[in-house]
Specification:
The complex is a heterodimer. By secondary structure, chain A is mostly helical. Helices cover 75% and strands 0% of the residues of chain A. In chain A, helix 1 (13-42) runs parallel beside helix 3 (82-110), helix 2 runs antiparallel to helix 3 (82-110) and helix 4 packs parallel to helix 6. Chain A starts with 12 loop residues before the first helix and ends in a 17-residue tail after the last helix. By secondary structure, chain B is mostly helical. In chain B, 81% of the residues lie in helices and 0% in strands. In chain B, helix 7 packs antiparallel against helix 8, helix 7 runs parallel beside helix 14 and helix 14 (271-283) runs antiparallel to helix 15. The chains are: A mainly alpha, B mainly alpha. The interface between A and B is large, with 38 and 41 residues.
Chain lengths: 223, 385
């Protein structure tokens, strides 16, 4: 512990925080994959539940670690990295919420939802894969600090938000079982929330600090 | 990749973000350190230049230990740095105008005076009740620790000379004899630069009093300015290490925290920086007061390195002795309170009590600073001289 003072870590404290944020995204993707796999045929199992819960706990702990480290960083460096500290203090919440909503998808399985052999199976799978890819791409863009890529992904994800809303609306006139309608509405709602939080996280790469959390709002309320 | 709209929000090492490359900054720090040591030598030369009659009259008052203590507090509050005060005291002792015995209370006063900085930082949290309680406790536990240490060790020193005698014994071992001067490894190099300043001043002025005054002024200015810039640059140089160390001791501190506090303070050459960094971390609840406490005690010990460096520049045994008194006083303070369960957190408990009072009326916190750090030392200095 004391010897840490004399060792050179090779990266700055901010880079360490960025690494942890990317790690939270990767873990979020893991929870998302486990939850959707269960929803699309895997069913609920103790093992999956344990995996989802423990990965989500890890994400929550990483969030607290990052907040502590940002506080120490701000105290040691005063105003040098203030915009970054404020930005990461905000987007760490988005990274944490991705795990939360993925966990909520698994909760649908626990309540009895099962998306195997649905009439709109192809559509359900398509959005599952699209959001999964979005999390992964966002993680890579964030790790590379790639503003161009972030802008592309934000634009791609923005289209999803409208689609998710349309699907939620469609769930109200769903012809099948009421339980399936509820599961659909919630599923698309959770995908929408995940998409919005991924977009918020990406805004830390491209936007001024006052516009963070912009994508937490509905499109018409963003101004 | 450059982030849009966020100006300098690109990541990278702290060094690159702050402009100056690390090797250049390291050289700058070493140059500043060299100038600092030359400043101590100049100060010493300036005091000697005034002649014994003048200096005897000037420092006659501080033969009263309490007056010396208050002078130490006041001088440190004014310059906001115990390193500047203690380096100056080393210069005074090395020049022979202040005895080791008379300087001991001044050193203790400097220890109390230096705590004003983090107390002022804590006042910045006044608007947030919960934050302020933690911040004010974290700041004033340092005050209480130093006041308790002085309350016990100053009378003991006056009665027995325990600190100064121990320091003399260590000096004898280190300096290899009881002569006035010792073979300092850097004295020659420092004298060369100080000599250039002296020659320059002597070439411009002929009046001896003017020359002595200029030696003194330039010496003190060099000490003050170089320490300010050493601290600033070292803070940048070791910021990542400080962060790593603090992150490691957030959950558990104890002796490890003490060592971290000492190392950080040695690195930045300022206990005020170390203790002030802790205030917002404690105020935010990330670091609990009891884990911050050992770090603060370590900072107390770490800050004594500056006086030891100044003693190397002076090359006199008395200079080294008073620098060692500074270290011994802070180590003795820790040994006095920390190992015993009953007294270990006494300063923290007292600080918590004071914070509770300050919470009921915030102006009391301001009054506390004004009375403890300004009114009492000022009155004490005026009345006891």
């Amino acid at each position: 512990m004391v010897l840490d003072f004399f060792r050179s870590s090779g990266h700055s404290a901010v880079e360490a925080v960025e690494g942890k944020l990317a790690g939270m995204l990767r873990d979020g993707r893991e929870v998302y994959d486990a939850a959707t796999e269960a929803l699309f045929g895997g069913g609920k199992s103790k093992e999956t539940r344990r995996e989802v819960r423990s990965t989500d706990r890890g994400i929550n702990e990483a969030q607290r670690d990052i907040r502590r480290e940002l506080m120490v960083h701000a105290s040691v460096n005063e105003t040098v990295d203030l915009p970054l500290v404020l930005s990461y203090m905000s987007v760490v919440k988005d990274a944490e919420r991705i795990g939360d909503y993925a966990k909520n998808i698994y909760d649908l399985v626990r309540y009895g939802a099962d998306f195997t052999d649905q009439p709109d199976q192809e559509e359900l799978v398509r959005y599952r894969d699209a959001v999964g890819r979005l999390i992964e791409d966002a993680c890579m863009a964030f790790e590379a600090r790639d503003a161009e890529r972030a802008r592309e992904l934000i634009s791609r994800a923005d289209e999803f938000l409208d689609d998710h809303d349309a699907h939620i609306k469609a769930a109200f006139s769903f012809d099948g079982e009421p339980a399936d309608a509820v599961a659909r509405a919630l599923y698309y709602r959770f995908l929408k929330r995940i998409t919005a939080h991924v977009m918020n996280l990406l805004t830390s790469l491209v936007m001024p600090i006052d516009r963070l959390d912009y994508y937490d709002e509905d499109k018409e309320d963003r101004g | 990749m450059v982030r849009e709209g966020q100006g300098d929000m690109q990541t990278g090492g702290a060094e690159t973000r702050r402009g100056m490359p690390t090797p250049v900054r390291t050289v700058v720090v070493l140059a500043l350190l060299y100038l600092f040591l030359a400043g101590v030598r100049l100060l010493e030369g300036g005091i000697k230049g005034f002649g014994s009659d003048f200096t005897d009259a000037l420092f006659e008052g501080v033969s009263n230990p309490l007056a010396g203590l208050f002078v130490g507090v006041l001088a440190t509050v004014l310059v906001q740095s115990s390193s500047v005060t203690t380096a100056t005291i080393v210069g005074l002792v090395a020049s022979g105008v202040v005895s080791v015995d008379a300087a001991v209370p001044m050193i203790m006063g400097a220890n109390i005076g230096t705590t004003v900085t983090n107390t002022l930082v804590s006042l910045g949290h006044m608007r947030q009740t919960a934050e302020f309680r933690l911040a004010f406790t974290a700041a004033t536990m340092h005050d209480f620790f130093n006041v308790i240490a002085v309350a016990v060790l100053l009378p003991l020193e006056v009665l027995t000379g325990v600190l100064s005698n121990t320091a003399r014994a260590i000096t004898e071992i280190l300096a290899g004899g009881s002569g006035i001067e010792f073979q300092s490894p850097i004295k020659g190099a420092v004298s060369w630069l100080a000599g250039i300043f002296e020659s320059l001043i002597e070439a411009l002025f002929s009046n001896e009093d003017v020359i002595a005054t200029l030696f003194l002024v330039v010496g003190i200015a060099l000490i003050f300015l170089t320490l300010t810039f050493i601290t600033k640059n070292m803070r940048v140089l070791v910021a990542a290490r400080i962060e790593r160390s603090l992150n490691a001791v957030l959950a558990k501190s104890g002796v490890v925290g003490m060592i971290v506090g000492m190392l950080v303070t040695i690195a930045v050459q300022s206990s005020s920086i170390t203790t002030s960094i802790l205030i917002p971390i404690v105020a935010s609840g990330v670091l609990v007061v009891r884990n911050a406490y050992p770090i603060t005690l370590g900072a107390n010990v770490g800050t004594t390195v500056t006086a030891l460096l100044a003693a190397l520049a002076s090359g006199t045994t008395d200079g080294l002795t008073i620098a060692l008194v500074h270290t011994l006083f802070n180590v003795a303070g820790i040994l006095l309170l920390y190992p015993w369960k009953v007294t270990r957190f006494l300063p923290v408990r007292l600080a918590e009590g004071l914070a509770t009072i300050a919470m009921s009326r915030r102006t009391l916190a301001l009054g506390y600073v004004a009375v403890v750090f300004v009114a009492v030392p000022l009155l004490g200095t005026l009345l006891l001289r």
